[in-house]
Write a structure and sequence with these properties.
Layout: H1 7-12, H2 14-29, E1 31-32, H3 42-48, E2 59-60, E3 63-64, H4 70-87, E4 91-93, H5 99-110, E5 116-119, H6 136-139, E6 142-145, H7 157-167, E7 171-174, H8 185-195, E8 198-202, H9 207-211, E9 224-228, E10 239-243, H10 250-253, H11 261-273, H12 279-292, H13 295-317, E11 331-335, H14 343-352, E12 355-356, E13 358-360, E14 374-378, H15 380-384, H16 389-404, H17 409-424
Helix pairs in contact: 3-12, 4-12, 5-11, 7-8, 13-16
The protein binds D-serine.
């Protein structure tokens, strides 16, 4: 049952109210399969819509540039304490406005313009901020690319090591937006140590899997770990940074600095890059961290992977190839290299039928990034709504039906869309229905 909310907005600004209602309806009647999306709870939405949106609090708890921050201090300290307990990290900064600002702060804290960093190109499943040419990270720093093997779709750690030895980067980024396999942080740490590089993990896509213990934990191995609070963590649109306290390369890279690693990160977030923290988002983050400590959340994290593997298996059984042959995470790529339609054709057809995903390059893709040969599918949102392995059989059948009817999609779309809306009616969508 859809929950009636926003009575003031409904009365005073019906245009915005109606758009919110339309979005909510879409989110409870379609299959949200964008791998970076999920559903924030009512708790998170209420915290984000709170009066903390009114307050300026430049600085950090106990050292603000504005008065009246006793509750802001308590809130930020609460978020940090919960986050540190959740991830077991030495230091946490909860002020980044989102994932890209968090990553920019890491660059600003530790590097100089022109320094070499290793990262995976966007075309191979990496993130914009890991050195891609159109992002600040590719303009201000020199990306040394490493990528999954074009045949297997997996990272070859011997190859990663050889690139690092040849290029001697100052920072290695690990963490991707379209990689379906587990990351070997211990192997990355050995390489980083060997070449004298900072190791930074970006866990925005997989944080819930780490919390659930179904993906290796980067915190023991990395100097810095960044993340968004939304995606599968189901918190607000915000970012956070975890780090060790000490800078193991202080003498090598920052001999003049009086700051340790944690202080370098904090100073880069504020005052170098940002002004006042978004306290309403920090409130949402605090409550998301609380929920993420529950057994229910850990079961959700584990179920995400079970659902992704069940969906892969069903699609493969229906003759739909998966890049790399499967998944160990929340996502995978449907591989349309042998089809005469593109990834973009497929994602548009799926959307017409109520399956919301995005087109994506696959390893060995020969089509342009604007067309691609793949569609990225993720199961975090469906799992948030309570779907299990048996439901994936039905989801796979719809995906296959869309692909089989892609040249005549308008004739089947209304039926499939109605079937999906009816199916969604069996589930509870956090923050929308109860
Ligand atoms: N844009 C996100 C994604 O879809 O993977 C990453 O930030």
């Amino acid at each position: 049952m859809s929950v009636e909310r926003y009575s003031h907005l409904k009365a005073n600004d019906p245009e915005v109210y109606e758009l919110i209602q339309s979005q909510a309806k879409m989110e409870r009647t379609t299959l949200k399969m964008i791998a970076s999306e999920s559903y924030a709870s009512f708790d998170v939405l209420e915290a984000c819509g709170s009066v903390f949106t009114n307050k300026y609090a430049e600085g950090y708890p106990g050292a603000r540039y504005y008065e009246g921050n006793e509750f802001a201090d308590a809130l930020e300290n609460l978020a940090i304490a919960r986050g540190k307990e959740l991830f077991g990290c030495e230091h946490m900064n909860v002020q980044p406005y989102s994932g890209s600002p968090a990553n920019s702060a890491v660059y600003r804290a530790l590097l100089n313009n022109g320094d070499k960093i290793m990262g995976v190109p966007v075309s191979d499943g990496g993130h914009l901020t890991h050195g891609w040419k159109v992002s600040f990270s590719g303009k201000d720093y020199v990306q040394i690319p490493y990528r999954p093997n074009q045949e297997t779709g997996r990272l070859d750690m011997a190859e990663v090591r050889q690139i690092a030895l040849n290029e001697r980067p100052k920072m290695i980024w690990v963490g991707m937006s379209a990689y379906p396999f587990k990351l070997d942080y211990a192997a990355f740490a050995e390489i980083a140590e060997e070449v004298g590089a900072y190791l930074v993990a970006d866990i925005a896509h997989i944080n819930a899997l780490i919390i659930a213990g179904v993906h290796p934990d980067p915190v023991p191995y990395c100097d810095v770990v960044t993340s968004t609070a939304h995606k599968m963590l189901r918190g607000p649109r915000a970012g956070f940074i975890m780090s060790k306290l000490e800078d193991r390369y202080h003498e090598k890279y920052h001999p003049e600095s009086k700051w340790n690693l944690a202080q370098l990160i904090d100073r880069a977030v504020f005052p170098t890059l940002q002004g006042g923290p978004h306290l309403h988002a920090i409130a949402g983050m605090a409550t998301a961290f609380k929920y993420a400590q529950t057994a229910e959340f850990k079961a959700y994290g584990a179920q995400i992977v079970k659902n992704a593997q069940a969906l892969c298996a069903e699609l493969e059984a229906l003759g739909r190839p998966i890049a790399g042959g499967g998944t160990e995470t929340h996502l995978f790529l449907l591989d349309f290299r042998k089809e005469d339609f593109t990834g973009k054709d497929a994602s548009q057809a799926l959307a017409k039928c109520g399956i919301i995903a995005n087109f994506n390059m696959v390893p060995g893709d020969t089509r342009s990034p604007f067309k691609t040969s793949g569609v990225r599918l993720g199961t975090a949102a469906l799992t948030s709504a309570g779907m299990k392995e048996a439901d994936m059989k039905q989801v796979a059948a719809w995906i296959d039906r869309v692909c089989r009817n892609i040249n005549d999609i308008d004739s089947v779309a209304p039926t499939i869309r109605a079937e999906i809306a009816e199916f969604c009616g069996k589930f509870t969508f956090p923050g929308i229905t109860e």
